[in-house]
């Protein structure tokens, strides 16, 4: 019984919502200011709530309701028309409304939930922005597109304006109706929706709805009244302007007639005077002088025409009656295009004869009916105006005895007159038809046919004997467009106001839910953050334990073998101990470099150099390091260099070799049998190259789970790996960071027990020049070089002396930069080896002081320092160091600098 009651209530609610959508739309249609576009469209909100509650089952109700509303609102549409193209727009509008309601309801049902009971602020904002605003673009676009295509009242250039208003109306309707209806429907749910909260929802949305509707109605009525005042005013302006244009035409022609009447007329003088009139009045197409003669004067006048124009001309046009006089075109301006009119007897045309007769009898100018000019190929209405010209040579004649000499004639363009009369704005504001009285067809218009809807005014004009009727009607599309522009800011304001108020209302409704949910989520986040911090702390603790072990191991070798070498007297045995000390020192140096690289990466200060280098040499250097190690483990080592032979790149080859050493070291370390293959290829695109180096081994492999943490600092694949194989967990992480700085990456493909393939990529520039060939490796001695060494550490002093004396150099050694400057003041040197960090005066300041001495501006000064970062190198160059050499001392590089300096000295002495 309870289930049946719920089912009945659901069906009743379904029916009530469908009827509410129809009735609310019917009432709101009275507030429309554009056809089928409402300022507030509540049916969109009702349809959304229905689809939220019943899903696709409510779509048919939305579709039927939309069709019924369109038929009820549109007086010209009946149900029979729905089966024709005329009803296509109605079906499309219904489809758009149904699709919009379904999409919005699905989003709410699937992701967002009930907006008045939503504890998540993000979802509440998503409802307002997504469902309340964005989704409503569906019906707006489909509906306006349908009306634009099928309804003549909608034009394409107003598409976006109409769509925006439709969209705003739907959005306001959704934002107002949805919280109102959901508060009303959930009225029985006392726990989630207290009675006072629901009442506030209902009251606030109702007041907001009435306020927006009243404000909209007020401004629409105000805009309509302003439009009516504007139309009444502009009709008077049009009437006055057209009369002014016609009177101006009479005045211009009268001016020409007075000129002819009071001057001895010649071709040049007529042309000059007529040209000036035409230039100042664009409505005049042509001006002419048409003398009145009898038929017996015809030969004499023809001879006059031939004399004037210097070519055989005849008076054309046979008189209608034998006794008719001749009124022919003697002069015409402009002449170009009107040559055929010269000599034409205008009295031979019936309509023009009637007009001339009226002018002869009334002594007033007379206009012809609308004509089509023979000189103009396109359809352009015009009329001729004949102004009588009299002979006033006899000053004593009475006015009734004046003799008619002919007619000053003007050809006037109707479209130009109307263009100046209406202007651009009034042409858009009005549809007009211009008729001659008694003629059923218009001769000028700005509509497609002679039937104009809603003729609101007819103006009557007398044009020198011709009566014109001007029918005016409002251009509804133009008025709607202007009205929509004027109300646009109002609707945007209302739209923003509704969004703000509804947002605040929903946020206040659900504040306790939001706060509770936020506390819950923050508690979980805090717990996760503590777990991550603990994991990071444990990782760093493990790292410290590993790194201390990794440092102590080679350090133990260095100390142990040093002691053994000290106790031994066998040269070969001591040499073997020293070799092992050197290997352990390299391992220790690599560890220190990794730690320094890690600190730079964390600080974001790791920088790459840009130098031209030979990738082939880098590959060979890496191969030479690991080939022996692979052989010692019984592994097969292979270098597959597929790079072009003569290509050079620009980049940081030291860092590239560092990455390759890390990858190859891991491959050798984790491979017990089989092979390790180092392969290099390149993809060149113009000046850019993508180098790809793969290191493939047949070692232990890595599981998919452990691959995810392989490139994380302080971690290895698993704890057993570090115990079995050693390592700090920094190498791969640093390698990936370096590769990404080079525009590439380090990736892995591996299966546990099947081996691994590490792929290193780097984006480099291709060098246009070859790098300099390496210098000879032959050991050289430099007994002629006089060297000053500034070093504060006694052991380092001894080491440098040993290195230099081995190459027959006896250096002068001082303990700080100040002593180095003083030594240079006492005697000259060929070069200076300068430590940068010293007491009293450091190497940087000492170099500055040396460079300030003119004698030593070009003295070679080599920085010998443990400062290896890019900033230190750059600063050393700025203060004046010639070269930057790092500690521990690279003897080969030091000797290369000596060789270059020695060669420079030798070349200067030649």
Structure description:
- This protein is an alpha+beta fold.
- The protein contains 25 helices and 23 strands.
- Strands 1, 2, 3, 4, 5, 6 and 7 form a seven-stranded antiparallel β-sheet that branches. Strands 12, 13, 14, 15, 16, 17 and 18 form a seven-stranded mixed β-sheet that branches.
- α2 crosses α4.
- It is elongated.
Features of the shown structure:
seven-stranded antiparallel β-sheet, 910 residues, 15% strand, alpha+beta, seven-stranded mixed β-sheet
Quick one: overall form?
elongated
Helices, by number, come to 25
- Mean pLDDT across residues: 81
| Radius of gyration over C-alpha positions, nearest whole angstrom | 51 Å
Give the helix/strand class.
alpha+beta
Portion of residues in beta strands equals: 15-25%
Give the proportion of residues in helices: 40-55%
Q: Give the biggest sheet.
A: 7 strands, antiparallel
Distance between the termini: 120 Å
Low-confidence stretches: 717-726, 771-777
DSSP, total strands: 23
């Amino acid at each position: 019984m309870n289930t049946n009651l719920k089912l009945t209530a659901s069906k009743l609610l379904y029916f009530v919502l469908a009827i509410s959508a129809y009735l609310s739309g019917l009432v709101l249609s009275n507030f429309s200011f554009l056809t089928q576009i409402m300022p507030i469209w509540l049916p969109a909100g009702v349809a959304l709530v229905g689809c939220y509650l019943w899903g696709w089952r409510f779509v048919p109700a939305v579709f039927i309701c939309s069709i019924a509303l369109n038929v009820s609102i549109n007086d010209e549409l009946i149900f029979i028309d729905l089966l024709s193209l005329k009803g296509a727009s109605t079906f499309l509008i219904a489809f758009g409304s149904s699709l919009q309601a379904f999409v919005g309801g699905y989003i709410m049902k699937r992701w967002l939930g009930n907006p008045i009971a939503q504890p998540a602020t993000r979802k509440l904002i998503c409802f307002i922005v997504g469902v309340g605003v964005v989704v409503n673009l569906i019906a707006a676009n489909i509906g306006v597109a349908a009306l634009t295509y099928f309804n003549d009242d909608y034009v394409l250039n107003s598409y976006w304006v109409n769509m925006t208003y439709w969209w705003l109306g739907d959005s306001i309707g959704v934002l107002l109706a949805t919280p109102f209806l959901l508060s009303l429907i959930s009225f029985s749910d006392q726990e989630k929706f207290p009675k006072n909260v629901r009442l506030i929802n209902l009251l606030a949305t109702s007041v907001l709805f009435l306020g927006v509707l009243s404000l909209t109605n007020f401004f629409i009525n105000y805009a309509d009244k302003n439009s009516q005042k504007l139309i009444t005013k502009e009709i008077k302006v049009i009437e006055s302007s057209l009369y002014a244009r016609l009177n101006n035409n009479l005045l211009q022609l009268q001016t020409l007639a007075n000129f002819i009447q009071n001057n001895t007329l010649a071709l040049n003088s007529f042309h000059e005077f007529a040209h000036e009139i035409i230039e100042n009045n664009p409505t005049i197409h042509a001006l002419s002088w048409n003398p009145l003669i009898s038929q017996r004067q015809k030969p004499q006048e023809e001879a006059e025409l031939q004399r004037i124009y210097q070519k055989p001309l005849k008076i054309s046009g046979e008189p209608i009656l034998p006794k008719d006089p001749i009124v022919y075109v003697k002069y015409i301006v402009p002449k170009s295009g009107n040559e055929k009119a010269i000599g034409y007897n205008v009295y031979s045309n019936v309509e023009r004869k009637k007009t001339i007769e009226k002018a002869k009898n009334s002594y007033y100018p007379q206009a012809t009916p609308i004509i089509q000019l023979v000189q103009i190929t396109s359809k352009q209405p015009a009329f001729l105006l004949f102004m009588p010209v009299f002979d006033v040579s006899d000053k004593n004649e009475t006015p009734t005895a004046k003799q008619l000499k002919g007619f000053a004639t003007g050809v006037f363009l109707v479209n130009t007159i109307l263009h100046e009369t209406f202007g651009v704005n009034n042409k858009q504001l009005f549809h007009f038809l211009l008729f001659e009285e008694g003629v059923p067809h218009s001769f000028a218009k700005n509509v497609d046919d002679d039937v104009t809807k809603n003729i609101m005014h007819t103006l009557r004009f007398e044009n020198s004997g011709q009566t014109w009727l001007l029918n005016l009607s409002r251009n509804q599309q133009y008025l709607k467009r202007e009205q929509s522009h004027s109300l646009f800011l109002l609707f945007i304001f209302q739209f923003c106001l509704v969004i703000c108020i509804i947002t605040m209302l929903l946020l206040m409704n659900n504040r306790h839910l939001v706060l509770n949910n936020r506390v819950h989520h923050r508690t979980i986040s805090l717990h996760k953050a503590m777990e991550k911090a603990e994991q990071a702390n444990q990782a760093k603790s493990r790292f410290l334990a590993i790194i201390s072990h990794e440092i102590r191991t080679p350090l133990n070798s260095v100390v142990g073998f040093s002691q053994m070498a000290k106790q031994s007297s066998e040269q070969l045995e001591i040499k073997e101990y020293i070799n092992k000390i050197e290997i352990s020192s390299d391992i220790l140096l690599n560890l220190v470099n990794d730690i320094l690289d890690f600190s730079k990466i964390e600080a974001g200060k790791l920088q790459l150099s840009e130098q031209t280098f030979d990738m082939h040499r880098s590959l060979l250097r890496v191969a030479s390091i690991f080939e022996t190690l692979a052989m010692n483990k019984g592994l097969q080592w292979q270098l597959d260099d597929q790079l072009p032979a003569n290509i050079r790149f620009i980049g940081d080859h030291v860092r590239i070799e560092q990455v390759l050493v890390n990858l190859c070291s891991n491959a050798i370390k984790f491979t017990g049998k089989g092979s390790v293959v180092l392969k290099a290829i390149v993809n060149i695109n113009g000046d850019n190259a993508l180098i790809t180096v793969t290191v493939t081994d047949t070692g232990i492999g890595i599981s998919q789970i452990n691959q995810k943490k392989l490139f994380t600092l302080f971690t290895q694949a698993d704890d057993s790996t570090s115990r079995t194989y050693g390592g700090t967990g920094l190498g791969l992480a640093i390698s990936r960071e370096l590769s990404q700085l080079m525009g590439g990456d380090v990736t892995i493909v591996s299966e546990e027990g099947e081996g691994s393939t590490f792929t290193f990529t780097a984006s480099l520039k291709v060098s246009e020049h070859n790098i300099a060939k390496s210098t000879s490796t032959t050991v050289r001695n430099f007994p002629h070089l006089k060297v000053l060494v500034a070093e504060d550490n006694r052991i380092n002093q001894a080491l440098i002396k040993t290195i230099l004396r081995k190459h027959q150099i006896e250096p002068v050694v001082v303990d700080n930069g100040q002593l180095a400057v003083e030594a240079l003041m006492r005697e000259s040197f060929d070069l200076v080896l300068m430590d940068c960090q010293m007491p009293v005066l450091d190497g940087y300041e000492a170099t500055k002081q040396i460079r300030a001495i003119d004698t030593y501006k070009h003295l070679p000064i080599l920085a010998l320092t443990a400062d290896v970062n890019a900033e230190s190198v750059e600063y050393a160059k700025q203060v004046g160091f010639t070269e930057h050499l790092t500690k521990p001392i690279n003897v080969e590089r030091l000797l290369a600098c000596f060789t270059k300096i020695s060669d420079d000295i030798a070349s200067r002495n030649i």
